[in-house]
Amino acid sequence: MMNNGEKILAALCYFSVLFAPFLLPLIVYFVAGDKEVSYHARKAFVSHLVPFISILLVVFFLFGQHVGWIIGAFILFGVLNFVIFIWNIVKGIQVLRW
């Protein structure tokens, strides 16, 4: 069971989607001594990577593709990024309440 400081640190990894998406979870993963905090930092880091990868895919779709693919990619990746953003907020709240 995590103490309050560890809960806050784990929750900040998820909330960092608002201010430092890659940096904070990566630092916490390597510095944290608690396995649960490292677990949450790793999950947060992976969930922050998905929007970055989707942005790269959208840029790929922009070059030489049909207009339908471009619009579809924007819609698909926009919804995906929104869902992941909400998921990070929810997970941060769940860790604090845990």
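Above is the first protein from milestone M3; the second protein from the same milestone is given next.
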Amino acid sequence: MKKWKQILRILFILDLEDGRLNLFESFPFIKRFFYNRKYFAWIRTFGDLVFVILILLGLLGPQDPQRNVMLFLAWGIWWTSVVLSWFFVGRMWCAFCPFPGLGRLLQNLGLSRFKNPPKWLTCKGLHLATALFFLIIWAETVTDMKHSPFLTALLLLSIVLGATLMGVLYRGYTWCRYLCPFGKITGSAATMALTEFRSDYEKCKDCKTFSCRRGRDKIRPCPVFLGAYHAKNNLVCLVCGHCLILCERDSPALYLRHPLREQIINKGRYITCGYVIPLLMGSQLARFIYETPYFTWFENLLGFGKAVTFTFLFAVGTLFFIELIKGGSILFTYYEDELFGRFSPMVPVVMPLAFTGELVYRLRYFLEELGNFLPTLGRQFHISFLISYQFEVPPFWIKTISYFLIFLGLTGGFYVAWYFYKKEFEGLVPFKNYLFINLLLVFCGGLYLFFQP
């Protein structure tokens, strides 16, 4: 009972000093799971096989969305489960991701140059990944990709080819570390996860081998060139546990924490989040509008087609959130420190809304198409009795769930703003500024609520 009380305290009471629980110590079966690499291999292999089947169904299967289940499996189950995983296990999904599977196989066969990633990639990878994310969201929307098996398979295949090329040219998971657009989004969202994978400084401080980053005994090092002792946040670490078998000091462990802990500690200092959050929120606003009658109004007003109108809304939405985040950070009055450097405290304020907004968008597709899954499966594989198992999730409940999640995101944002005002920046932020910050957040939430289909 004491253990569960501690868990509840960690989840609901923010403690920046000692607000973590070592899950390896409290639940040894979790540690055994991470140490037994066969489990990871089995899950990855299963994921790779399912992924291959999805691509084949998209390329060779029926192109009628009512006769191909790959659309629901890809956009409904896969995407929604990925977004949900952000809030619980951070980037652990990336540890099982099928995109680098072929590249990993080629590396295991010795068919790779195993070179270090070039400097231009380490410097410009964030910009390239952000551009790829814009391109993917744009293509998904304007081509109605969620209703096209072929285009969906083509998207998946193109990402696999990109990851494979990087795997052949460079060592490790170069694609995952620097170029994967989903990785950047997942990494940013993982800073709000309930868990974190960290090393023990006391165990690491006298280490001379740095095996977790360099490898040892023909065991390859951390696939994203990080090493447990360098995992200071959730942005890059894949939570793959590879460093566990390399560390001689039993240092890395999985910890339970308050979901806003990392956001408040770092106060928007991550440049990745500074790029990703306004782009993500701008895309969400444009996608929400796209699915409402208001989009037709914008289309008629601008006099352009759907593609140009959506691009315009995407760009304007992104610029709007960039300026809103800048303005909100200025209202905090304290956004630069001699030791801490520059930071953007408005980023962690809007971040809960940004990622619950993405969950709203993905979950809506899942709920709207859930009742069609079995009939679609029946039509595709000629299983006649499944066709009668059609049902519909009432639109009222879909909207209610969407509103609840948006309010949940707003609640998280209000809490972060209050914590900064009352504790982190105590006495530095004028009360009227604090009110304006909350009004900006309310305005963002109002836009999300107003443009719900």
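Note on the second protein: Strands lie at 20-22, 195-198, 253-257, 336-337, 341-342.
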